[in-house]
Amino acid sequence: NVYFCAMRRNKPQPPIEKLTIDGIAQTGTGVGRTPDGQVIFVKGAIPGDIVSVTVQKKRRRHLEGKVSNIIKASPDRIEAVCDHFGVCGGCSWQHMSYEAQLRHKQTEVNEALARIGGLENVNYAPIIGCEETFAYRNKMEFSFSARRWLSFEEINGDNKIEDRTALGFHIPGMWDKIVDIEHCHIQPDLPNKIRNEIRNYAREHKLSFYDPRKQKGFLRSLMLRTTLSGELMVVMQFFHEDKVAQTGLLTYLKETFPEITSLQYIINEKGNDTIYDQEIHCFSGTAYITEKMGDLSFRITPKAFYQTNPAQAEVLYAKALAMAQLKPTDVVYDLYTGLGTIAQYVAHACKKVVGVESVPDAIVAAKENAKRNKIDNATFKVGDMRKVFTDGFVKRYKTPDVIITDPPRDGMHKDVVEQLLEVSPSKILYISCNPSTQARDLAMLKAAYKVELSQAVDMFPHTQHVENIVLLSKRL
Fold first, then answer.
1. Sign of torsion, CA 46 48 53 57?
2. Pick the catalytic residue: 82, 91, 130, 433?
3. Mind listing the pLDDT tens digit for each residue in 427-473?
4. 4 pLDDT exceeds 50?
5. pLDDT tens figures, 22-36
6. Any catalytic annotation for residue 433?
């Protein structure tokens, strides 16, 4: 019975011909309407396309499909430069002109604040784009796999597939399938060469690649981090200890790529490959790399968060500082401070800044960074953001004139929003990488605060993601 129910649910849908794509979803997929008015999300389509669509899934309120033929291309459509485009799951807008990408990101921000936030008459500044739209990412993580994803051509071809190993990205929706990456265009050239050389070495020396289904294999994951000044970190993750094999590989990397500043490794035998609960061993070089931002420097460890587009991060922070219009007498709270980058960036413009973060290791790093940067008016505290603003905390550090908040994609917990309303600073500067959750939080603040300005900043070219800064002032 279960089998036949599944068959009925997956009954093939007839193809849709000459579908006009007139919108784009937050996931980056094109949106159109079938002749009978059903909404359909179409992978590979962009606004302005007229396409034939193969329907893949029928949901309760919409359909999902993929482009089978482009009848008339959108004027915004361009040729993607990457051989892995449409397969690896990244850079989903690489087939759209950058001017169009910025236009759609601006629209996403405006519509989120209006529709979800219920905000009217907002002053929207034009989105700030990136000067460099490729090779901008300073951190990439790749997975080893004994189960390489096979294309339809490979599966249906006559050639026998001898090697199923891969080093690359997870196929979207397939936890155990990895697409083998030859060149990632949003990563600099040197890390690309290092990744490929690691894979070549592993195959040549018959090192086993991790099999997530069987949970066995030696090579598990690879992290590559770079800085604008040219420092480079390599972190190898092994599933089990093999001193001969790991020493051989790491020594080869050290000798072949003297540009590596920090060469580290992890032995991770648990079920998932997250590193935050793992011990990290430094094989050679330093246990960190150092990024510069203006006159400031920040040490970045394997577990540390730092903006993945460092050049544009400075543009973002400079714009945020300009919007805040801090005075020398201002007390500033910086919520979700992480390594203290924003707090230290604005410290020179105010009397005192207090950075708050729930991750103890991040606060330790923030204090060390501030000390190296000779900043003596920044204080960093570990705390649960929902509980931090006690009467004692505010009394000790003074009522803030300005609160800067830069939460993760989920936005602020409603208790944090209520804390902001209770503390009642004159201004709030809200930086977000998710306009939808930002708009949700702004809806809870709008009775007490007015949105003075919304400034979108593109940090992630060729993806649907966008950063947005909103300046709020307390209503009189």
1. positive
2. 433
3. 999 999 999 999 999 999 999 999 999 999 999 999 999 999 999 99
4. no
5. 999 877 899 999 998
6. yes
